[in-house]
Every structure is written in structure tokens, then in C-alpha cells.
Design goal:
By secondary structure, the protein is α/β, with parallel strands linked by helices. The chain has nine helices and twelve strands.
Length: about 325
């Protein structure tokens, strides 16, 4: 039994790393594997290599207190006399975000990577274009470690927004609570929910960065459902439109399989969107992501997987 709640251990580690000047940008799993396969990258020799690159380390590399926080929080693995951290910390803006170690093999892994940076930039750009009203309600559905909703709340801090972070994965909410504490965010609630099922009320802003791949292992953070991974994205839009206040917006960052030049996700969504008659925009942010997934049988007919952005706005009063 752990002596320290994991959430508290994550907060203590995050504050210590921040005070130490720690900074790390998390890359794709494929890039991570290549970098860690280099000569001399077998063992960690710095904080970035322990908490960013997820390399095993000798206990003497870290202060005894930091090792104890990891151990007491159930965040430490030991193998052949070396230790490994079960948590990574990534930098985004001025904040540090705790999330799962590499490789993210566990079914309840909490993901953070290049998609997170693009998602956050999309939110910031949208709020720069049209700020939220005073006291706005924000929902991050399928929040993972919480960066999307937190970026929106921090960008709107002067308007005292109220934030709800919701995820079906309890482990995601442990990380999200710790990350919110690290950012000293107030007016925030955490809900374990299958999308909107346990979430109450309407929102001025709904943001979502759902899993969008076909994952044979059906890992929660990665498996998007449906034949080509778009199932959760479709549900988030179809079920979320009625959760918007008058003038409210839904901002979706996701991936779309392109088959013979056709974006199948947009083809599925456009009927619903045009039937509503609400203002919306849909565009590609990156034409080619996770290209290695095309080797899977499920993508046998796909040209590519694109990162796409959808913004839908309900008419105002």
C-alpha cells in the first residue's frame, strides 16, 4: 500500500522539477524510440532523461526525497538494480504536465505528445479570435492529463471561467487533478464520465482531443472506435451540440483517415452540421500524422491520416 496519495506525489515532484528549471517537449512514440535507441542513451544522466525520456537511472542520480516521493506514490519501478519513473513531465507554455511514462503500453495510460501541442495552439488561436464571456463554463471532454481545458481556462483567467475536466479513465483524472494543482487553477471540477454521460449542464466552450486511431490493444487513450478510429470524434460532435449555450463553441482536434482522397470523418459529420445550419469551420492542421499506423490491416485502403480541426458555434441569443 502506498504511503502517499499518487496525486500528492505528482504535485510534489512537479513543483520540485519546476524549481529545478526542468523543461521537456514530448515527441511522438516513434521519435522517442529512435532517440532512446542511440548509443549512450541506455541509462539516464539528467532530470530530462529520467522524467522526459523515461530512461532507467541509478538511485544516486536524484535527491533521496524525490526517490521517496516516487516510491511512496507508487510511481517507481525497479529492475536489475536500476530505477525507472512511471511518470513523465512535459512543458507546455509556462506549465508542467504529468502524464504516463514511455512506452504507454498500459490500458489506462495517460497520453501527452505533439497532438497536445497542436490542440492547445488551436484553442489559444480560437480564444484569441473570440474571447469567452465573463464566468464562462468550459468542458474538456476526454481530458486525459487536462491540458486542453487548462489552456482554455488559463487563457481566459481574467474572466473567472469555471472548468470541468471529464474522462472515463480514473487514472487520467489523477493526473489532471495534479496538473490543475500545479497550475494553481481554481473553479474546477473533475468528473469520471463516458463523454457527456455524467456531466451536467451547458457550456460556453467544449474542447476535445479524443483518441482517433485503430488500436488492436483497445487502449483507452488511443482507440478511437469505429472502422477507422473516428467513432469517438463523431460522438463528441453529435452528443455535444445540444450541450452548448447560445453562442457557445465546440472545438475538436482529432485525426481523420483519408481514403482515396476522401476525408471519411468529415463526410460523416457534414450532414449533421449542415442540417443544423450553425456556423462551422473544418480544416487540416497536418496532412500526415502517425504514418506508421498505415501498416495495420485496418488502414489497408487509407492514403494517410490527417490531423484536423473542427469549430462549431451555436447561434447567439
Amino acid at each position: 500500500m502506498n504511503d502517499l496519495p499518487q496525486e500528492e506525489a505528482l504535485v510534489l515532484l512537479g513543483h520540485w522539477l519546476d524549481a529545478s528549471g526542468y523543461y521537456f517537449v514530448t515527441v511522438t512514440p516513434a521519435t522517442h524510440a529512435r532517440v532512446n535507441a542511440r548509443p549512450g542513451a541506455r541509462h539516464a544522466r539528467s532530470l530530462r532523461e529520467v522524467f522526459g525520456w523515461s530512461r532507467p537511472f541509478e538511485a544516486e542520480l536524484l535527491p533521496k526525497q524525490a526517490v521517496q516521493w516516487l516510491r511512496d506514490g507508487g510511481l517507481l519501478r525497479e529492475n536489475d538494480g536500476l530505477l525507472s519513473s512511471c511518470v513523465r513531465f512535459s512543458s507546455l507554455g509556462a506549465q508542467l504536465y504529468a502524464h504516463s511514462r514511455y512506452p504507454t503500453d498500459e490500458a489506462d495510460a495517460v497520453f501527452f505528445g505533439p497532438d497536445t501541442y497542436r490542440f492547445s495552439a488551436l484553442i489559444e488561436a480560437e480564444l484569441g479570435r473570440q474571447p469567452l464571456p465573463l464566468g464562462a463554463r468550459i468542458l474538456d471532454v476526454g481530458c486525459g492529463a487536462g491540458p486542453g481545458g487548462m489552456v482554455a481556462a488559463l487563457a481566459s483567467e481574467s474572466g473567472k471561467p469555471r472548468l470541468v475536466l471529464a474522462d472515463i479513465n480514473p487514472q487520467a483524472l489523477v493526473h489532471a487533478r495534479a496538473n490543475a494543482a500545479l497550475a494553481d487553477l481554481k473553479r474546477i471540477a473533475f468528473v469520471q464520465s463516458d463523454l457527456y454521460a455524467q456531466v451536467e449542464g451547458e457550456f460556453d466552450l467544449i474542447v476535445a482531443n479524443p483518441p482517433y486511431l485503430v488500436d488492436p490493444a483497445a487502449r483507452t487513450y488511443r482507440n478511437g472506435g469505429g472502422p477507422l478510429g473516428g467513432g469517438l470524434s463523431e460522438r463528441i460532435v453529435a452528443e455535444g451540440l445540444e450541450r452548448l449555450t447560445a453562442g457557445g463553441r465546440l472545438v475538436l482536434y482529432t485525426g481523420a483517415a483519408i481514403v482515396e482522397g476522401a476525408d471519411l470523418l468529415f463526410e460523416s459529420l457534414q450532414g449533421l452540421l449542415r442540417e443544423r445550419g450553425w456556423a462551422f469551420s473544418y480544416r487540416e492542421l497536418d496532412p500526415d500524422v502517425f504514418g506508421e499506423e498505415l501498416a495495420l490491416p485496418a488502414y489497408g485502403q487509407a492514403d494517410r491520416i490527417a490531423a484536423v480541426a473542427l469549430v462549431v458555434q451555436r447561434p447567439g441569443p
